[in-house]
Amino acid sequence: MKIVLAEKVSPATLAVFAAEPGWEVLTHDKLPDGLPAALADADALVVRSAVQVDDALMEKAPKLRVIGRAGVGVDNIDAEAATRRGIVVMNTPGANAVAVAELTIGLMLALARKVPAANGTMHAGKWEKKSLQGSELRGKTLGILGLGRIGLEVARRARGFGLEIIGSDPFVSAAVARENGIRLVTIDELFAGCEYLTLHVGLTPQTADIINAKTLAAMKKGVRIINCARGELIDDAALVEALKSGHVAGAALDVFREEPLKNSAYTGLDNVILTPHIAGSTGEAQEAVGIQIARQVREYLKLGVVQNAVNLPSLSHEEYVQLSPYIDLAGRLGSFLAQTGKGGIESAQLFYGGLLTDAKTELVRNSAIAGLLAGSENVNLINAAAIAEERGIRVHEEKQDGHRGGAANLLAVELHSAGGASHATATVIHGEQPRLLEFDGIDVEAPLEGNLLVCRNLDVPGVIGKIGTILGEHGVNIANFALGRDRSGVQPVKALAVVQVDAPVSQDVLQALTKIEALLEAKLVTLPEGKS
Fold it and tell me: Where does the ACT domain start and stop, copy by copy (predicted)?
């Protein structure tokens, strides 16, 4: 493996990669020919916030599998381009949560007690005690917008100051809120009910400019606003006007739309505290995010475990271990249907049964799509859904118990193509062996691995013997012979044989098989070998 650390990281971060035998690690100060040249054969890239990882840079990195961002924001990484190229983008949410929460509390205190003004007058040789009377946090209401890791850390610390805490977040449970002393309210109630408001949400179309002229007008006169999240959450012109009018008593801002901050109206206001995006900048936090991203990248490269990905749902190590056989199964089933298919793919429907109904199945879905499209282009678990969408292939998922009896965890894929529909159901036995259970309505148990001859025929005597005879005459050894027949009552009755052979058969063998009078179709399906 080759890892490129494009920006300065702590020795502990470097040590995570250095401990892996045979891994090559290039640090930011050892790139004599520049970053693009270093990425030509790199498996992983780790950055902070300075390096811009755009599509042009990824073009220079054909082997790149993962981009790790030592921090939360990924504005400097083109995640959409990475997804198209099949590259995982990971960040480290929560590693700097304590650092951000502590600065948030510090800024609240600084606003309440006018600390910057007091410091400034003292350094100017003045003693202006009377003009610097502040207020206590005790008894005030703190509104927290966003109750993720940072928002909850803020709440835990705020309780010690005797603040009443209200919060708004549609993705947090009432139980978690209660445990942290937070009263859940609607977003309108949050804005209307607090004396201090702190922002801890990510940037989405719904949260962009969420602090605007309308929401500011709904707030109490004298509210104080702290933003250590994203500059784009605030309509700057509206906040400046509210600060000038006194409707907003003060603001403390650590993040901005454009950084570094230049020619800003905020700099002329004495009721605004400005800090240069330092909320996560503590020695402890920087160490933590560096080690965390190194471990995440290492786990992905070694085991395929995806954690804290911004362009793919993440799984814990335990979840990945449980789902891994079904991720593999899905790829095999998708490839099986593609190789036995009937033309261009129009849509695919996935059905999950048993324990899969409660699992995070996005990687299973993507693996099935990757199997379906494997013959057409470079498609993998990361870019599969995006490529399907680009090609106009509709993918639908359905989780249902009892899709087919006889096995606990089932995966079925129904493929619709120009030539018609096909359907297959499969499972995993003994924890790791992929098994086909049904194909186009015919029950047949066969291994989903290696070289498979899939033969459709009329259910008449002699067909099986003739297949075996022809294979024997051509020196083809049979490893497994699975049979099934259509029990729907439709005449003439059709049957199915899935024959596992030791080596791929030639076109001569396939042509010889098609000469069997009752044989309707014979196709070779090639799948990866199973685990030994």
Answer: 452-532
Q: Find the helix or strand (DSSP H, E) in which 446 lies.
A: strand 442-447
**33-69 per-position pLDDT tens digit:** 999 999 999 999 999 988 999 999 999 999 999 999 9
pLDDT tens-digit profile of 124-154?
A: 999 999 999 999 999 999 999 999 889 999 9
pTM of the model: 0.63
Selecting among 48, 65, 224, 230, the annotated active-site residue is 230
CATH among 3.30.565.10, 3.30.70.260, 3.30.160.270, 3.40.50.720 for 450-527 = 3.30.70.260
Distances (CA, A) of 348 to 360, 403, 524: 19, 17, 22
Could you report how far apart the first and last alpha carbons of the chain are, in Å?
Answer: 25
352-379 burial by CB neighbour count: b if 16+ within 10 A, else e? bbbebbebebbbbbbbbbbbbbbeeeeb
- Fold category of 97-274 in CATH: Rossmann fold (3.40.50)
Q: Is 259 a catalytic residue?
A: yes
**Quick check: is 230 catalytic?**
yes
Exactly one of 156, 277, 404, 423 is catalytic; name it: 277
* CATH of segment(s) 315-440: 3.30.1330.90
